[in-house]
Amino acid sequence: MRAFTGLRGPRAPRASSAWPLLLVCLIAGTPWSLADSDPPDSAFTNLVGEEMMAKYSNLSLEIHSISLTDKSSMLVEKNITLEKPSNMELTCQFTTSGDLNSINITWRKGDELLENNNYLINASGNTLYTQYTFTIINSKQMGSYSCFFEEEKEQKGTFNIKVPELHGKHKPLITYVGDSTVLVCKCEHCFPTNWTWYRSNGSVQVPVDVHMNDKYVISGKHANETRLKIMHLSEEDGGSYWCHAIFQLGESEEHIELVVLSFLVPLKPFLAIIAEVILLVAFILLCEMYTQKKKKHPEEGKEFEQIEQLKSDDSNGIENNAPRHRKIESGNQ
């Protein structure tokens, strides 16, 4: 592996700055050494630097890498979870069939171009390596760090550094009026420094009033979880709740939806079914009544026709018998 550029360190003090002090020493007749050329506050500066180095040397080292080729067609990303200050070592490996000397390598944090004296570039065979080493001590240093290999086609690898995500109940939590419920938020393999609960009031998040002991109780069995117990639920308690975790390097939150139902709500489907059954039975009865009524009308018509026929027959019989009686009477005479 051969180095293209090395990591540049801080520059040494210029020798010209020692000439005035040397002249004063010669006039005063006092011995002079190069160490005396440091400014009076250099001892304090060195002490602070040593303390900072000792402080950062105790931080954990996070090593992450990404591999790219000149044939890569998709964005290559890697998500890194970080909850406390750490030393970071990000490495990008780029394999190409072209000329390594014609490839321009840069690093960016978001859209900000990083200085090239903060990272190393090495080569081995047909592979380029670039390594960016730095220390994250606050939330402003979190974000996306990208390495760029600019040839005929630009290739990019991105490290997304963020605080841990929280895990709650993704589906709505359903409960009933008068009951109690517990909302739970957890952080896997991480330990927030503080937990806070909020409730959505329109577009604004309002802190849960923990002083209402008869309504809210916040607890947690472990440092990586928090529980919000809500008692004596009413329909107004339904809505969105947010658990908020604070880390040394930032903040994270999770959303939980609470639905509070009245006791009539479970009965509504049964009431609807009963109503449908009643309507169906009523409709069937009406159909039966209509059918029976329709059957009765033809029978009554037939009976009426029969009666009329009988009446007509009787009247015809009487008329036929009348001449006979007359003939008999005339014969007797």
UniProtKB/TrEMBL annotation:
Q: Which GO terms describe its cellular component?
A: axon; plasma membrane; synapse
Which GO terms of the molecular function aspect are on file? Answer: cell-cell adhesion mediator activity
Positions of the region Disordered?
296-333
Keyword Metal-binding applies: no
Q: Where is the Ig-like domain?
A: 70-147, 164-245
> Principal localization?
membrane
Question: In the record, which residues are listed under signal peptide?
Answer: 1-37
One Pfam family, please name it: I-set
Q: Which GO terms describe its biological process?
A: axon guidance; dendrite self-avoidance; homophilic cell adhesion via plasma membrane adhesion molecules
Q: Which InterPro entries match?
A: Ig-like_dom, Ig-like_dom_sf, Ig-like_fold, Ig_I-set, Ig_sub
Tell me which SUPFAM superfamilies the record gives: Immunoglobulin
- Which compartment or compartments is the protein found in? Cell membrane; Synapse
Write the record's keywords in alphabetical order, separated by commas. Cell membrane, Disulfide bond, Glycoprotein, Immunoglobulin domain, Membrane, Phosphoprotein, Repeat, Signal, Synapse, Transmembrane, Transmembrane helix
| Mode of membrane association | Single-pass type I membrane protein
Task: Indicate, by first and last residue, each region the UniProt record lists as having compositional bias (Basic and acidic residues).
Answer: 297-314
Xref: Gene3D superfamilies: Immunoglobulins (2.60.40.10)
Residues annotated as transmembrane: 270-287
The record's note on quaternary structure and interaction partners says: Interacts with SLC16A1, SLC16A6 and SLC16A7.
Protein name per its UniProtKB record: Embigin
User: Which organism was this protein described from?
Assistant: Marmota monax (Woodchuck)
